[in-house]
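Per reviewer request, we include the raw input and output of the structure prediction for the construct analysed in the revised manuscript.
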Amino acid sequence: MDERPGPRERIVRAAAALFLARSYTGVGIAEICAAADVRKGTLYHFFPSKAEIGKAVLDWHAAAFDRHFTRAEHANGEIAALVGAVTGVQSGIERRFGRIVGCPMGNLAAELATTEVEVREHLARIFAAWEERLAVGCRRAAAAGRLRAGVDPERMAHLLLAQVQGAILLAKARERTAAEIVADVDELLRLYLVTEVAV
């Protein structure tokens, strides 16, 4: 039988779910405490500010995405791993909430980039790490002759990240499904590659 997570982990998980279901600004500290079954003193022991909770939530989501990406890399290859990772994350979110509620990173970027400098900078570092991870795969695809003529691997990585975020945002606004997001991402990859990506 699994042990109950400790208070810090419960706070992060509760905040992550609440921020996704509603928003960062729409959720109060008392609500996070109630969902995590902790007292305010316990929360402030681990997180002296709401921004610190936000950064911990971002790290938690980023680690989950990285696990999906790594599993997909082993199953599908580096470039197709993007489709596998998006499949895993967005399908899981859709199952949990019954609808697409967006990318946890994209949601917080849109909401907080102009108001919470700490959170924005933290997000920027996570996006930069993802872009570099994509760039590694793009450079390897280029070396293997898999990219279409004229495709720059670094630019491709940047555009893939931007386009995936846009596809998820549009799906959220239009109440589309995870399967449709994945199809969009797969089609994006095909635009860059000489041969079709096996998904």
